[in-house]
Every structure is written in C-alpha cells, then in structure tokens.
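Lab notebook, design round three. We kept the backbone fixed and only want residue identities now. Task for the bench partner: fill in a sequence for the structure below.
Input structure tokens:
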C-alpha cells in the first residue's frame, strides 16, 4: 500500500455503487462531482467522499434530518454492537455525519474501532452533566463523517451516580442535543445488555429503537422484556413512543429455529419486524479481527448486502 492510499478514508462509497443507487450513469455522476469529491482508488475505480454522496442523495430527496437510533436488547450477544458499528460505517458512506455513542462499559464498539479511551480521556460518565463544555473534546474521529464517544468500565458506575429520575430522563438526550449542535445528523447508541441507567436514558432519548434478536428463545424473552420496559418508561416519563424495529440479526435458513423466528416476526411482532434479515456469516468476525466493518471493502458478501438493505430501510434511501 503506498502512502497516498494509506491516507485515504476507509469508508467511502464507490462511484459504481452511487450510480446503482441513483440510477444515473457513473460517467455523468463523475462529470458533476468535483475532483475534491472523488478519490482515485488506483485501478479499482473511484470512491466518492461522503460529503459529495450527501449532495447527490439530497438532490434525490434523501433527508438528513437529525435522528437518534439506539440498539437495545436486555439479552446479551444478540448483535447490538455488530449492528451499531456496521450501520454507522454505512451511514457515514451515505453522507450522514454519524456519531457512535458507546454506553456499554464492556466497550465493544470502542474496541471494534480500535479507539478505547486513554486513562484521562472523558467518556459518557464524565460528560453527561456538562455536554456543552466537555463533549467536543471527548469525541474520537474514526473516519470521514464517523466519530465515536468511547466507553470504558467507568460507565458501569452510572447506575450508582445517575440515580435522579429527572437526570436519567435528560442525560443521553442532552448529549445527543449537543451532538446535533456540533453538526451531527445521526447518533447510534450501543447499549449494554441490562436494564440500567444507560438503557433507561437511551429509551428516553431515542426516536428509533432497534431490538436485535438472534432467533433463540432467550432473545425473544429479552425482546419481550425490552418492549415492556420501553412501554413503562414512556409512561413514567410521559414521553412519545419511539419507533421500534425488531431485527433478525442471525438468520440461518438451515436451522429449525429460523423458521419459527420468521413465523413469530410475521405474527405477534409483525408491527415491529424489519423487512430485512441479517444472514449468519463469518464476515463479521473476520472484519472485526481486521479492526473494521464489512463496509471497508466493496467485496460482495451477504453481510454487506443485508446491512446495506437495513441501512437504506432505516435511513430512507431508496434504490
Ligand atoms: N449475522 C451474524 N453472523 C455471524 N455472527 C454474528 C452475526 N451477528 C453478530 N455476530 C457475532 O455474534 C457475536 C455477538 O454479537 P454482538 O457483540 O454484536 O452482540 P451484542 O448484543 O452487542 O452483545 P452484548 O450484549 O454482549 O453487548 C459477535 O461475535 C458477532 O461477531
Ligand atoms: Mg455489545
């Protein structure tokens, strides 16, 4: 890899992909997009910088209105972090100024982006009470249009320190409002698998809640508990209901449980079910081992295909 390639952003849409999405010939797009918006990928065609993608998609009516999307399931290991980081990188490619808010004290999202905070660097626990002063200096740049508020074990102390219900209601929302003020369009929250302060405060802030289910009975138990909590919290705090989306995050058509899961999603959970399932593939763990998501390369895979369809569904990007 030469030095020039090294300095390129990792998450860019290719000109070919943009042409497919917009239905406009690549040659015509190339003429309209300024040289600054294009990246010569040396024999692999052109990449389009997120800001130029944004200009093109805005022309076609894609809205970049501010949104807060939280991944919650009280059951662990269902794909919350995978979904958060994968959606984040694709959203950035689509031109959304995206910030990942890592609220899990296990810090899986921060680790996935190889961006754990240093000892003296602030995390949510340190900044929620004064986001205007502390947030800007606390964010880590991951890539063009992609930033992170990292997490560490100290976020586990939130349950002991953020006990006032009024503060719980405001804490995540306050940070997100500051992110909006800083120019972000999209906040993606990765929550821990427990009903603690971080989850309660995220439910109060989010306008969309994605609940991933892996297909096993335990993730449905977690789904029911999570739906119950959303209901109870909205009632307690007199909040409007967020949009809830249930995502089948590990679909393996060879498994008997998969058919039962699809049935449930088409039956009792039909109001919430996302019309896209994420198929099981080793692509996720392979990408993670490289410190990136499946959108770092344009190689075809079910992982890319499924998450791209999900992102377009969530962000209103039609083909
Ligand atoms: N579609 C998939 N195919 C294969 N593996 C997957 C898929 N989705 C997620 N995984 C893997 O499942 C594991 C758990 O996923 P992840 O860490 O995203 O879950 P989580 O809900 O965030 O867990 P926790 O509750 O512990 O934070 C990871 O190793 C991830 O790579
Ligand atoms: Mg996680």
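Proposed sequence:
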């Amino acid at each position: 890899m030469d030095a020039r390639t090294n300095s390129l952003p990792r998450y860019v849409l290719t000109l070919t992909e943009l042409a497919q999405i917009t239905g406009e010939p690549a040659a015509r797009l190339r003429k309209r997009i300024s040289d600054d918006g294009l990246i010569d990928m040396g024999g692999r065609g052109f990449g389009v910088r997120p800001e130029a993608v944004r200009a093109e998609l805005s022309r076609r009516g894609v809205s970049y209105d501010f949104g807060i999307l939280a991944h919650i399931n009280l059951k662990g290991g269902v794909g919350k972090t995978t979904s958060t980081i994968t959606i984040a990188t694709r959203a950035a490619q689509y031109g959304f100024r995206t910030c990942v808010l890592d609220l899990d004290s296990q810090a899986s999202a921060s680790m996935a982006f190889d961006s754990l905070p240093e000892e003296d660097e602030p995390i949510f626990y340190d900044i929620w009470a004064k986001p205007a002063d502390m947030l800007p200096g606390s964010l880590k740049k991951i890539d063009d249009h992609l930033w992170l508020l990292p997490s560490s074990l100290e976020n586990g102390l939130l349950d002991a320190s953020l006990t006032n219900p009024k503060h719980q209601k405001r804490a995540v929302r306050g940070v997100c409002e500051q992110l909006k003020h800083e120019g972000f369009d999209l906040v993606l929250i990765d929550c821990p698998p427990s009903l603690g302060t971080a989850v309660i405060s995220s439910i109060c802030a989010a306008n969309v809640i994605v609940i991933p289910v892996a297909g096993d009975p335990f993730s449905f138990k977690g789904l029911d508990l999570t739906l119950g909590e959303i209901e109870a919290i909205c009632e307690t705090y007199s909040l409007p209901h967020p949009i809830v989306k249930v995502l089948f995050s590990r679909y393996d058509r060879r498994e008997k449980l998969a058919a039962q899961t699809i049935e449930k999603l088409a039956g009792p959970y039909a109001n919430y079910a996302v019309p896209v399932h994420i198929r099981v593939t080793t692509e996720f763990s392979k990408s993670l081992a490289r410190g990136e998501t499946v959108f770092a390369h344009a190689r075809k895979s079910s992982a890319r295909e499924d998450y791209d369809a999900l992102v377009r569904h969530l962000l209103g990007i039609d083909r």
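Keep this in mind before ordering anything: Residues 1-6 have pLDDT under 50 and may be disordered.
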